[in-house]
Amino acid sequence: MDKLVNTVRPYAWGSVTALPELLGQEPTGEPQAELWMGAHPGDPSRADRGEGPRRLDELIAADPEGELGAASVARFGPTLPFLLKVLAPGIPISIQAHPSLDQARAGFAAENALGIPLDAPHRNYRDANHKPELICALGDFDGLCGFRRPAEAAALLAGLDVPALEPVIAPLRAEDESEALSGALAAALGLDGPAAEAAVRDTAEAIGKAAAEDPTGPYAPYTRIARDFPGDRGLIAGLLLNHVLLRAGEALYLGAGVPHAYLHGVCVELQANSDNVLRAGLTPKHIDVPELLRVVEFAPSAPEPLLPVPVDGTPGEELYPVPIDEFRLSRFDLAGQERTVGGEAPQILLCTAGNARLTSADGEVLDLAQGESAFLPADGTPTRLTGTAATVFRATVTL
User: CB within 10 Å: which end of the chain, N or C, has fewer?
Assistant: First the structure.
């Protein structure tokens, strides 16, 4: 088992204080957005096995079956199939969607054929993998997820009484819901020039007025977007999406093509090992509207918070069930008990509260403070997990 040294990504949307607080560090005054734990080549974790820190992806590449187990390699290939993160948005993260596996493979190959560098700012596909994801709130966490029903979205937009929104509202009257949503999103993202500026300005003013009259009403979540992204068409696109508020311990699963944006809070995120993002707004980064519209799943949804369920045969472990095998997220709330982890699958353990201790079968001890994590290779041996007033998340695969 290895204690991991992880990278914090300083995206502009990150909170200045949330990740330093989790990690027990002094804030730098700069935004700190994502803590990465895993073997993605963009920012792999490092582990020291007595010869100095080494990249986790390199350790795995040197002995895939020894690190990941034969079953994981046979099913998912010789790389760690998942990436674990802590997200800390201080301002909204871009409205985005992620491709399916087939779309990612085709897009990655096409951009490679065009000779677009992997780090080019206008590149859409940085790898050939899909990016389904699961987020679990560590406190109150709110975001936008999935499309509202067209009639609901039309009523919300019309309620602002902004004439410039009529080109977005009109498509929502289509009988076919998929056609209605695709037409509305295309119209919102197609606004341009002075007309777009006026539409966004008038929408922001109307949202501010409505939220002041009803601070808990449906427009209130959008005041944060209007404040932090003045003039951005993503404000209008965001009104097409459901607002979701998660409480601590509640989770949300997002499959391919589901449009979403995270607004504020801190969460643990577990996803497939990918960094493919198609953006729709609320960002200075590259936006490819035609490709986004090709990838998005135009279907209304009613996202409900996902609650953990007890795991049979593993007392004290609670699982967040998802319809995918490349990652599996569970949680231990320790109050002096001893639990067993380790086994035939690779895993990363993250302590988000208190202090936890790992003890291997041969007596090796590894202590994890709040914000620290460890990689357990798939060596088939049990590892004891103990702690007092500690919360530990377990990221692994389903074999």
Answer: C
